[in-house]
Amino acid sequence: MDLLRGLAIFFVLMNHVNMRLLIADVPYTEHLPQQLVSSLVWNGQRGVQIFFAISGFLITTTTLRRWSSLSNTSVRGFYLMRLARIAPLLFLLLAVLSALHLAHLHNFVVPQKTGGLARALFAALTFHVNVLEAHRGYLPGNWDILWSLSIEEMFYLFFPLAARFLGGRKVFIGLLLAFVVAGPFARAVLAHGNEVWREYSYLGGMDAIALGCLTALILPRRHFSPRTLRTMAAIGAVFLIFTLCFSIQADTLGLARAGLDMTLVALGTCFIIAAATQTNWKAPRFFAPLLDLGQRSYEVYLTHMFVVFTLFALFVGAGMPFTAIAPLFISVTIIATLLGDLVARLYSEPLNRAIRARWRQPQPNP
């Protein structure tokens, strides 16, 4: 899980550094192979799709472990579990962003065309940043990343209710399958030409979460043979390698246009999760940097834009030398990981434990 999450957040980091360079008209990709550039710095959206699939699997697995079955899910307990994990850092982030907006700091001011600070805060706290941006345009970078949290938390707003009342029935499985089918349709058709909504719509992201949930529901009931697990791992690897490393060919085949490229990313992730879970596969320590990044993925995701903006400002101040571009990417990855680890150890994890203890909620390890 940590390896996949590390890979996902790595793609997000690369994408956001790349966007800064493009906005500044730094033509650093001119003499690089197009597919190499696409694979390294344009897979941020696919990285988020990996996150969604992992999230669905972990939340469903945690729910089953805590309450033994979906029909026994405590709605109150589930909400407290999510509140303890998500709210402390989210509230701190919003407080910092509000202060930076009021200080009129460049890159942090929410423009009036999107509704200003109050509208952005309301959208963040009610999980519809994606809707706001689809209608009024992009928010500043530190706000924009909350589009994915809006999709994820809207799904989990209804998850315990559906689990409690439909968890013991085939209707619940049917509901998850409906999300899976709706995902490509939402990306390809329901966006109606709105590029923001094509990437940020609720249904366009919930299919990956639903696939993760389905994987968690199937695995305890089925013990697959070693041969089947090897086949699943191979299929998952092929799906991910094809969509992440051969994205241009995938686009040529019309997968993106049909909304199916993201489906392949989620399916590949779930196949690998299934194989790794039943074989108890552990990532070699060779992947330690990615593992560390994955272990702090939530904290890194919510705080990394501070690192991106700070280091990019230094890069611009140095005259934007081409020799500093590679160190810029590397430095952002390292410092964002360290910052995420620091925030987790000193703030989010202690508050997570404190909130669970206050409400007598045992501490899982999602």
The description of the largest β-sheet is: none
The backbone outline, from C-alpha atoms, is globular
Q: Please mark out the parts with pLDDT under 50 across 5 or more consecutive residues, or reply none.
A: none
Order of helices and strands: HHHHHHHHHHHHHHHHH
Q: Structural class, from secondary structure content?
A: mainly alpha
Record field, number of beta strands: 0
| Proportion of strand residues | under 5%
What percentage of residues falls in helices of 4 or more residues?
Answer: over 70%
Give the count of helical stretches: 17
General description of the model:
With 366 residues, this protein is an all-alpha fold. The protein has 17 helices and no strands. It is globular, with a radius of gyration of 20 Å.
